[in-house]
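Q: How would the C-alpha cells look for this protein?
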Amino acid sequence: MRQRYFIELSYKGTNYHGWQIQPNAISIQEDLNKALSTLLRENIETVGAGRTDAGVHARFFVAHFDSSNLNIDNNNIVHRLNKFLSNDIAIKKIFKVSETSHTRFDALSRTYKYYICRNKDPFKKDFSYYFPFELDINKINQACKILFSYKDFSCFSKLHTDTKTNNCKIILAECIGKNDMIIFTISADRFLRNMVRAIVGTLIEVGQNRISINEFTQIIESKNRSNAGKSVPAKGLFLEKIEY
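A: Here is the predicted structure in C-alpha cell form.
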C-alpha cells in the first residue's frame, strides 16, 4: 500500500534548467527527487503541476509523489528537506491526498507574473528584465483584452513541442506600472511552452508602438510563431499561483 502526498514549494530558477528532469542539466525535480529518496529511504519520483523553463522562478509550485510511508510528519520532513536542499529551493508543506489526486491534471488555473524594471538596479537584476524605454501601458492593456477572444495561441508557442493542442483559456491578462516596475499578470487554464514570455515580448512591441492593436490581432490569427515578438528573458518570470 502506498500513500500519495502533495508537496508545496517555491524556488529561484536562476541556477536550474527548469523544473523537469533534463539530460546533462540540473533541474528542480531532480534535486527534489534525490532529497526525498534519501530522507524517506525509498525511490521517490515527483510529478509537477507543470514545467517551468530554465531560469524561471516559482513563488508557488506543487508536486505530488507516492510513498510506502503512510504517515509522513509534515513538520519534521519539511525541516529536514529544507536543510538538505539548496538555498534556492524552499519546501512549505507536505500533506496527504487521495490516490487519484494529480497536481497537473487537477489544476484549474495557473497565474504568472512578469517583472520589467525601468531603472538599472543590481538588487533586481536576477528577478526582472531591465528595460529603460517608455511603454504605453494603456495600449498594452488594450491588446491584453484581445487575448480573451481567442483559444489557439500557436503564435506564442515554442515550436515542435509534444502538446496535442495549442488551445488555452486565458481568464486574466493585465499590465500595471508600479514605481519603477511594470508588472504583467496572466492567468489561464493551461500554458504552452514559452507562451508567457512570447506574449510579453510581443506586448512590449505594442507598447513601443511598433505593433498596432490590429496587427496584434493578426499575429494571433496567423498562428505563426515567427510573426510574434521575441521572447523576453526568463529571469523576469514567476509562477505565482496554482488553483485547484
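The chain has two domains: 3-97, 109-243.

The two ends are 26 Å apart (CA to CA).

Upvote if useful.
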